[in-house]
Amino acid sequence: MPELPEVEVLRRSLERPLVGDRFDAVQVHFPTLREPLCGPALRRLQGRTVRRLRRRAKYLLVDTGGERLPHRDLADATDPIRVAGRAGPDVVGKDRGAAASGGLTLVLHLGMSGRLTLVAGDAPLAAHEHVGFDLASGRRLRFCDPRRFGLAFVAPTGDLDGDRHFRHLGVEPLGSDFDGARLAALARGRRAPAKSFLMDAETVVGVGNIYASEALYRARIHPRRSVARIARRRFDVLAAAVREVLRDAIEQGGTTLNDFADGEGNSGYFQVSLDVYGREGEPCPVRCGARIRRIVISNRSTYYCPRCQR
DNA sequence: CGTAGACCCTGCGCGC
DNA sequence: TGCGCGCAGGGTCTAC
């Protein structure tokens, strides 16, 4: 279901309703996800207030803080530093205290079929509802995932970059440090097909099976072309195409092929703007009119125009 | 080392 | 109507 645009749309839709609300109770119903849900860890969120929603790659991050006993907790966190006699500049102690006491982040990944929706607190348990987060406002944040490729865990806010799920992630395509030069540098020494290269999360994050095909179509690059044989200037075109297609998709609420919906249940409508994905046999829409072809790369369906894309 | 493929799991639509 | 098959937007692990 979700690539970067869908997760971003979800983040935006949930930010206003969630920030300032508080986790009351966390109900784990079916712990069977890609990694088993850890009830005790998730229940550490209870009593915490949502501060901010962020996104990293295809992960949605719910930052919380403000426990009910902040003074005691802060003291607990900072005392060992003083006792150890290693208290450096004041700011270091404060940062450590904040990371250890205030900052807990709920990390969510929707896998292929995950859905995160805000429902009434007394809404009946849904099929495949793995975990429900009861909120002080009386609502419930419901996480369903039939295929169980998703993920939900809690980590200290300050340590996220070092977490094993994040450590090897590549560059954010919508960030300021993503451009053709960066992409070309990442391609050096590699021979993978352009599509595999784009979908490798250790290279660029957030580009999944739909948007890889779409970006390559816009950049007129054949999905099987080895990145070793892409001219330097074409990486500028490719980087721009990746950014554009992701931005366009976000603007249109993401792609709803089957069941994607934002936090309030709204479908996206970028699927009508897809140029090639899922359009085998249809004419090349914006250029030559040749029939769109479907091939398989690394076990994933790949769509392209055999005439325009080289 | 980088790359290709299998695998994890359930649900859906299709053709027979 | 019912069944088997292929396919589905994710990441990870293994073998080459």
How would you characterize the overall build of this protein?
By secondary structure, the chain is α+β, with helices and mostly antiparallel strands. The chain contains eight helices and ten strands. The protein has helices at 4-18, 39-43, 70-83, 90-102, 180-187, 194-199, 209-219, 232-251; strands at residues 23-28, 49-56, 59-65, 104-109, 115-120, 129-135, 139-144, 151-156, 293-297, 300-304. Strands 1-6-7-5 form a four-stranded antiparallel beta sheet. A hairpin with a 3-residue loop joins strand 6 and strand 7. Helix 1 crosses helix 8, helix 5 (180-187) packs across helix 8 and helix 7 packs across helix 8 (232-251). The protein is globular, with a radius of gyration of 22 Å. The two termini are 29 Å apart. The structure holds a DNA duplex (16 and 16 nucleotides).
Please give the radius of gyration in angstroms.
Answer: 22 Å
Q: State the total count of DSSP E strands.
A: 10
Could you describe the largest sheet, including whether it forms a barrel? 4 strands, antiparallel
Given the helix and strand composition, which structural class is it?
alpha+beta
Total number of helices? 8
The overall pLDDT, averaged over residues, is: 90
Q: What's the overall geometry?
A: globular
Strand content: 15-25%
Strand order in space, largest sheet: 1-6-7-5
Helix content: 25-40%
Q: Quote the distance from N terminus to C terminus.
A: 29 Å
